# Entry
Amino acid sequence: MIKAGIIGSTGYAGEELVRLLWQHKDAQVVWYGSRSYVDKKYRDIYGNMFRIVDDVCKDDNLNALAEEADVIFTATPQGFLASELTEELLQKVKVIDLSADYRLKDVAVYEQWYKIKHASPQLLPEAVYGLCEVNREAVRGARLVANPGCYPTCTTLAIRPMLKAGLIDPSSVIVDAKSGTSGAGRGAKTANLYCEVNENIKAYGVTTHRHTPEIEEQLSYAAGEPVNIIFTPHLVPMNRGILITAYANLKERISEEDIREIYHRLYDDETFVRVLDPGVPPETRWVRGSNYVDVNIAVDERTNRVIMMGAMDNLVKGAAGQAVQNMNLMFGLPESEGLMQVPMFP
Amino acid sequence: MIKAGIIGSTGYAGEELVRLLWQHKDAQVVWYGSRSYVDKKYRDIYGNMFRIVDDVCKDDNLNALAEEADVIFTATPQGFLASELTEELLQKVKVIDLSADYRLKDVAVYEQWYKIKHASPQLLPEAVYGLCEVNREAVRGARLVANPGCYPTCTTLAIRPMLKAGLIDPSSVIVDAKSGTSGAGRGAKTANLYCEVNENIKAYGVTTHRHTPEIEEQLSYAAGEPVNIIFTPHLVPMNRGILITAYANLKERISEEDIREIYHRLYDDETFVRVLDPGVPPETRWVRGSNYVDVNIAVDERTNRVIMMGAMDNLVKGAAGQAVQNMNLMFGLPESEGLMQVPMFP
Amino acid sequence: MIKAGIIGSTGYAGEELVRLLWQHKDAQVVWYGSRSYVDKKYRDIYGNMFRIVDDVCKDDNLNALAEEADVIFTATPQGFLASELTEELLQKVKVIDLSADYRLKDVAVYEQWYKIKHASPQLLPEAVYGLCEVNREAVRGARLVANPGCYPTCTTLAIRPMLKAGLIDPSSVIVDAKSGTSGAGRGAKTANLYCEVNENIKAYGVTTHRHTPEIEEQLSYAAGEPVNIIFTPHLVPMNRGILITAYANLKERISEEDIREIYHRLYDDETFVRVLDPGVPPETRWVRGSNYVDVNIAVDERTNRVIMMGAMDNLVKGAAGQAVQNMNLMFGLPESEGLMQVPMFP
Amino acid sequence: MIKAGIIGSTGYAGEELVRLLWQHKDAQVVWYGSRSYVDKKYRDIYGNMFRIVDDVCKDDNLNALAEEADVIFTATPQGFLASELTEELLQKVKVIDLSADYRLKDVAVYEQWYKIKHASPQLLPEAVYGLCEVNREAVRGARLVANPGCYPTCTTLAIRPMLKAGLIDPSSVIVDAKSGTSGAGRGAKTANLYCEVNENIKAYGVTTHRHTPEIEEQLSYAAGEPVNIIFTPHLVPMNRGILITAYANLKERISEEDIREIYHRLYDDETFVRVLDPGVPPETRWVRGSNYVDVNIAVDERTNRVIMMGAMDNLVKGAAGQAVQNMNLMFGLPESEGLMQVPMFP
# Structure
């Protein structure tokens, strides 16, 4: 039985981790960390856990936790883990970080986009970017996994096959993304009140969203050259779900069938990536509560462009589910252990 | 492995059964019945089932199905099962009926409220009302289970302890109920379009809703005398969830603590009924996707009345989950097998 | 042209006042008061006002405002106005208070339910309860109007005819209310975040909601005797709208037609109260954005009870619209001036 | 007083026309046409109109209507008006068509995208495309106005200044659009049920949406050369609102300030187009219920692209409001008559 500690267990991603780990037959949560709710019962913060979780919240003492846990999940604000993590700690416990601290290999890029000084750049080379479908082997041997951001996960899985196959012009990629509101976290902000989000759609972080360099880095690996993109996220009045609609210029004429063939080749052995049938656009309702990413493409012959689409639950494959998938790999378990929930509809 | 057939598998309750049975380790679905979608792939109707269910829909031939299945779930319009079910069929297969055909013991009451002639009243005496927390033993030996309606399940579990203990005046019971829209089914009606339901709340079926006699029958058993109630359901702009707010006059002064004591005594051994802490009203968000019913009470000393509240997922404990719970009992499995999903929030 | 000042103009009710007054041909807003946003442009707080309102927010200095305005609307926290208002001020300017400070005639009741010491009880006798349909004449001559609460407005208008006619037992009244989330205000609280409210329904303030004594006082006037009720509000995932479903025991048998006759007699000359057709329950979608209250009743012959229902936009007739209606009366304008918006659907 | 007839008055756009015309001081509706609801009271179909509209629905007899009306609005399925409209009719009455029948000048393009034979191509040259901000003068003298589609209105107003100024490569334009569900109409389709739309976002009509050629034609006029675009609409779980996020390559380096200058020059005299402040993305909540279009741009210096954004209420400026704006022009009234509603929030 893997003993797991969660730092930041009272945010939405943390709570989703609790939900998934509670149903995982080889893991149990031994530490519910929460800066805001120390000594408060977890089930008083999340009423769904009533009669399920009886623990009280503890603080975010990584060193104490390292003595009790086999793995630590950090669902914490940017900069927290970077300033706490040490070689000594990594010798005792595996760490899966749901923040952005170890996702970007170039510390200068991190500091530019996050406006924070990185406190432990020496650990960056070791950190493995935990997009399992891409870095499976590296994750297996990792001590420190940087769990990918929600937008980067969905975007990379949707676009990567085209770049890897060299079919699109990397400089032409435009990503228009739409996210449910749980992605904005549980902080009490006016902008996230029900009446502000409901009956509204807006773009935010236009040209400046912090997931941009993370997506660019991952796409660059696939393309074998530096990639710059436009990334525009939108806030959608729904709880869960991310939809990516990406556009790129095809280098040469190619049929939709031939492209779909490439996607199938890459993804048909993947448990969690579903290449949809021709003409079926991904929808977030079909993946809700599950670890699936649904992808599809359409070719626009009139403009010789391709539209690449992906849908995913931002809290599962975009956060907690992928973290558990990484944990499974790191501990030698079947990758899908505890993650085979059927999407819940309606 | 229990072989299950579902007649009416393409409605919301049917699809929820598919979701739950697919995750049940001792059952498998062998027949996806659907009058409207015969020969169509199930996953083309419900995209969440893509790469999970590969079957095509079959018709609603109960006799053919009885040869293949150990249990048949019928999530069908009122009157269908009553006109199809026979003693012969019941000798071959167990039946769990999610329609109202066998819920009311008095055929005259059925015919009055449903405006349908009952085609097999001779089977009514045998049918067991599948509210497991009340009729557990009878369900264990049943061939034919009438799976309770959504409102009656939540209402009965919330009010029953008070009536059983003789604490309230049975003639004073008023039930104000609120339901998510999945309860209205997947039929294409203007009234259930997104723009009609969204940003709206309304009462419907005022004084005439068909669940009224079902609730009254169950409450009468608890009270030991005939009970007439007012039952007013409301349609709420959300997918899932039922909330019951019920009111009754206390016969004598009694403290909230003493009442809560009674609830705890009755429910603390129940896996799926959670008696909340003092002052915590049930909320549908805390039970979503799970088989739990959350109940609580409040005493209004100013008027000497009690307010009895219950929250539940109408598609799980109010339909498919309770049906699986019944199946578990009928086949000698642990009652909670396949039903321990942690409620999904947000 | 009436010069109006708004203290608390940046809450939802304040902003709705701005919307309505801007479209009122005989009034203009001269003071946008806001404790939190002093010196900030109003249209930066509410983007809908871009290129409509160019003013910056001012503080909540009632005395300075009284020099500039003919009428002051206060949409402020409980206790604010009571501690600021003076006879001197009332000699200069009319005041319409959207808070609860002057709604209850009995200062002890106010202090008990609001847990605040009332700072100007000497002004209570003069304050007119601004439910125009009931106190029209008194409002006309008033200097200080207590604008009714949202729940009390809808409840009183729905139930009052029955009590006035002596048809129901006053001690049997139960009010089950449902409100959209704008009623919770624009304060940044976790409980009102989108993901917490969406896909949820819950009761709140069970047996303790502060509108209870206000409703009771108004119903007592109608009944001619003290009335105690149960009042249970619920939070509904929608922006606007209040629905009241109230229950009471009929003293004697009476037909629905005869009751409806009474409602028509009382309300057919009222511009803003619509008695719906038989069998048509009020729905909040049909009054959205308007000053209408839709009411209807149903008799349950089985239990000899009546169900009284009302629907209203909580921000219009439940707050800002009624305040403007009061202003019209106080300044001798046609009562419906600036309030004839057709409800906006969908 | 302008006498207006509405053919198709019981769809969402038709009902919005009723709402707006009812509040218009120089117009009145004399004919509520509806194929589905002939002889039914209009207020029984739309309860918001209770005690406002007392008329019953009539059929869609254009010739009879032409005798009674000064202007006919047709909110009808594609092909209807084309097959009914005649020179004779146009000599009696002005026509504002909310369908697509006269929007495209090239009949071959119409027939290709709409898969319908156009029954009156001889009227196409005369029809004026009623985008008032572009074709104001032509609208003034028109007998037949083709009221623009919702997506084309928002897209054209957002992008047009860039093309007119020759700042972007016309072949690089990509339009990612998001619409509320009222755009899908009031037809009873499973796909538009509450539970299907709620908690979901999806693209639809990918590469094939019928508004594509309409947008292309309008952008071509602005560019002075043929323009082909990718247009991808998405369905958002909200009632009203359209948001456009469009992307294009800048021909040369140009600052955001210089571009904004161009937008201001073009739009500052327009009543209904609001150029937002730097860094403020348009949001649908700020225009709800109003005839405003909010636009803004952002320059992405990293990729030398521009992002052009627009937000609008699809039922007002995207349909009924623009139709009234056209009517005002055609009848010599102030263009904004009856259209100055302040956006309703929340």
The CA atoms of residues 104 and 214 of chain A lie 6 Å apart. The mean pLDDT of chain A is 98.
